[in-house]
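Record type: ASSEMBLY
Status: queued
Input:
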Amino acid sequence: MHPATSVILFTSLSGLGFGMLFWLGLGFPDVTGWSAFAFFAVAFALSVGGLLASTFHLGHPERFLKAFTQWRSSWLSREAVIAVCGLTVMGLYAAGAVFLGETFRVLGVIGAILSVLTVYATAMIYTQLKTVPRWNQATTPAIFLLLSVSGGALMTNQLWAALPLFIVAIAVQLLAWKRGDQALATSGTDIGTATGLGDRGTVRAFEPPHTGNNYLMREMVHVIGRKHAMKLRVIAIALLAAPLFLLFIPSPGHVIGAVAVLLHLAGVVTLRWLFFAEAEHVVGIYYGKR
Amino acid sequence: MTQLPSQTEKKLGLVIDLDTCVGCHACVVSCKGWNTENYGAPLSDQDPYGADPSGTFLNRVHSYEITPSEGAAQLIHFPKSCLHCEDAPCVTVCPTGASYKRLEDGIVLVNESSCIGCGLCAWACPYGAREMDQAEGVMKKCTLCVDRIYNENLPEEDRVPACVRTCPAGARHFGDLGDETSDVSKLVAERGGMDLMPEQGTKPVNKYLPPRPKDETFDVLAPFLEPVAAEPKGFLGWLDKTLERL
Ligand code: SF4
Ligand code: SF4
Ligand code: SF4
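Status: finished
Output:
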């Protein structure tokens, strides 16, 4: 799949933002006044900024309100609905914490649940696609949720939670790659089933329908990026593991904290890039590619 | 509404004969022509006369080679367009309700004025049957020429999809695949019509008729015909013998 910058930024930033909102809603840390203002400002900037970035790849962003209507069947619509609900509830909770110095815990807990549900809905947009076997497995929502909640814990300085979550996230990511590398081969879809001619002999794509490229090839048969995938995997895991070591420094302070966050974010963006670039869509089979 | 109807009154679709398709791409051109001039946004081209031309098409013809374990390889031309699936994943993923499956005839359509151009439906289709128009920013797909098949302003023989009307080889058939007594259903039963990627669970309405096995001898009558070129006589005979001797 084509790794579109807007979608990579959207899923990475909003994941981090909703991860922060999750911890803030639960009262970790239980802040009020100016320090609450600072935390919430960052969390909303990331989550709302990410959502806005996601509209950049739309053909008709001005019609976005229609995307709230089909929540009965569509994960993309559900994501939009849950995100707005979550942001509204957390907005009320934040207003209470900042202006009234009161933390309404019930509101916070509901907001926290809606925040992780938003990330889950985002992940399900990809997970539901049988056409991309690498995404169509349980590790996809698991890794989205783990990256969001661990990043949120890092941003809200909940190191007791961040450290174990990082380790689990890395483990699940390794599992996702192990399974994902086999996913297309074990999905049962190949050029034989795609053409229905498989039982007659070996089928080979002889001539494509067009000599140039087209929307399908640009969007779904993105193979160029896979060349350095192995190196990028190593880099991504190193970036993700880096905060683990930084945070062992006694009394890390703001600068080291910020460095840890940036390293984490770089790791998440690299992983997201790989998530798209490595994903094989079955339509590639019609073109003799994967 | 992007929930799928549990049942449609008709299942209109195409039956494509891989045995007779000659890969002329006439159906591609007639489809592009009709759907650029009629329903919805035109099918645009980008850089059509330049170095990197591309464009929106609703029907494309691939070619595949089958090499059997014994015998000669076979070349199959393979037209591909929307299969108007019963369990269309492209419809259920759509966040806006722009994609829908019609209750009356099962045609899968896009309401272009509701489409936000998110592209998710194209990701959900295993067959590459949906293409985002780069000029218009909305999703385009085969409409089964919904603006021809019911169009009383057209002569009756033209009330079929443009590709079917155009095909010079008679490789494309249009009809109700939900009706067992229809010509297309009979054809599918007779020729063993098949689904593409059945494991994807989309339950396509369009069917493909497999190629028939190639004849062993090319022409059954050939061995019984008189050879045309007999031994040359006269001047040519003399020339032949002379040249032979040299
Ligand atoms: S062929 Fe693709 S676009 Fe057409 S109905 Fe099936 S899934 Fe949808
Ligand atoms: S591109 Fe248009 S038709 Fe397709 S899923 Fe998005 S809104 Fe629906
Ligand atoms: S017009 Fe008919 S013969 Fe020509 S490519 Fe299309 S289906 Fe095949």
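Annotation: The beta strands of chain A are 202-207.
Annotation: Chain A has one domain: 5-286.
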